[in-house]
Design a protein that fits this description.
The complex is a heterodimer of chains A (134) and B (173). With 134 residues, chain A is mainly alpha-helical. In chain A, 54% of the residues lie in helices and 6% in strands. Chain A is built from 6 helices and 4 strands, in the order αααββαββαα. In chain A, the strands form 2 sheets. Chain A has a two-stranded antiparallel sheet with strand order 1-2. Chain A has a two-stranded antiparallel ribbon with strand order 3-4. The N and C termini of chain A lie far apart (48 Å). Chain B has one domain. Chain B contains 7 helices and no strands. By secondary structure, chain B is mainly α. Classes of the chains: A mainly alpha (134), B mainly alpha (173). Chains A and B meet through strand 2, helix 4 and helix 5 of A and helix 1 of B.
């Protein structure tokens, strides 16, 4: 009885270890994808990406801040009114801790806001800005 | 932000007109203990509820869920795409518990008012939903505190628990 339980716990522990990405490991990953050193990532470019307005639907404009608010340490709202936990790791340590989640939301939201995928450098810049917010 | 809200307002207005066009005389028995089937499914709860309430699969027929899950790249204007394995897993769950699966009473009530070949994408377009909400004044849908008819929890205070009976309804001002 004890052995299967111990094995299950081990499996769970290793699964959570495997998913334990951090802003730093993700920045390193995206910098490598972009073919540049991590030091070439720019928090300033990340902030510009976050705040820049793009043509949205029905003559409106859209930016990351449309849903995540001007202050990413604050909670946001989805288009149908559901709470979005803050994007900045300073306010929400869960952020940028799972590469699959990060890729999923970049894929969706870059398409929605920019009408294209984000480049590896843009993703790195974005995390560089958010992760240095205090 | 303001422009986005205005966009939502326009969408809501259009939605309300659509709702009214489908309005039927009050005939549905109200307050008959509307509780969604108690279901648990990890991906359904995690993925669908990232953006909105995890709407009960019992509120649309299988054909609707197949259409909806086949078009997540443009999910009412938003990209809600999933990896293929998660998408297939959620669709299987939705199909097994769909309105026409025979799995729930509420599903049977939804189907009673659905054409045989109907496969609406919006729960708010089903005659069942429209009939259920015929007492809601049209202005309520567009209130800022509500946002849109997709926001069940704005009025149904126990929506997150699957409880939609009349007693738990509080329409915000």
């Amino acid at each position: 009885m004890i052995k299967p339980l111990a094995l299950t716990m081990l499996a769970l522990m290793s699964a959570s270890v495997a998913a334990a990405d951090t802003p730093a490991t993700l920045m390193a990953h995206f910098a490598q994808q972009a073919g540049s050193p991590v030091s070439a990532l720019s928090a300033a470019r990340g902030e510009t990406l976050y705040r820049s307005e793009h043509p949205g639907r029905a003559g409106t404009s859209v930016s990351c801040a449309s849903c995540h608010t001007a202050n990413p340490k604050q909670p946001g709202r989805t288009r149908v009114g559901k709470r979005i936990e803050p994007l900045a790791p300073a306010a929400n340590p869960q952020r940028f801790s799972d590469a699959a989640q990060v890729e999923k939301w970049f894929r969706r939201n870059c398409q929605d806001v920019l009408k294209r995928e984000c480049s590896a450098q843009e993703k790195g810049d974005f995390i560089a800005w958010l992760s240095q917010l205090k | 932000m303001n422009t986005l809200l205005r966009g939502i307002g326009v969408l809501t207005a259009v939605g309300t007109v659509t709702l009214l066009a489908f309005s039927l005389p009050s005939g549905e028995a109200h307050g008959d203990g509307d509780v969604m089937p108690r279901l648990t499914h990890k991906n359904w709860q995690q993925e669908c509820a990232s953006c909105h309430l995890a709407y009960s699969p019992a509120l649309l027929p299988r054909a609707s869920w197949q259409r909806l899950m086949g078009g997540l790249d443009d999910h009412f204007g938003d990209n809600a795409s999933l990896d293929p394995a998660t998408q297939a897993d959620i669709l299987r769950f939705l199909e097994a518990n769909a309105a026409d699966s025979g799995a729930s009473q509420i599903g049977s009530r939804v189907m009673r008012r659905m054409g045989a070949k109907d496969a609406p994408l919006r729960i708010t377009e089903t005659r069942w939903f429209v009939g259920k909400h015929d007492e809601v004044p049209r202005t309520a849908w567009s209130r800022k505190s509500v946002g849109s008819a997709a926001n069940c929890a704005a009025c149904h205070s126990k929506a997150d628990k699957g409880v939609f009976d009349d007693d738990s309804v509080r329409v915000p001002k």
